[in-house]
Amino acid sequence: MKTYQYLLITSGIILGLAGGITIGVSEAEDIQEVARMPQDFMLKVAGTNAQQPVIPFNEIISQYEQDGSRVTDIELDRELTRDVYELEVVDATGQGWDMDIDARTGEVLSKHRDWDD
Asked: By residue range, what is the domain housing residue 58?
């Protein structure tokens, strides 16, 4: 992974200490790189005191890239009560969806049509 991406992620962690952490990517090749991030690094980002580890990026991406769908953006956001993956998914028909997924359980918290497409 490129040094600037680690720097970007590290900067997000430092800025996130005051209220939240967001890690995100939006380009297809970057999503594939993030999917290969080491699990131990993701656990550090999500919090080492977590009761249950976060689901790795690659598992979330592969779960939602089925049946011709593709993930175009993914972010790991630390909220007050949980860690959430925020996904933008384009389905096989070309419709965009914004989804919030619990990063530890995989539960779909919300799914809305992305009308910006």
From this structure: 3-113
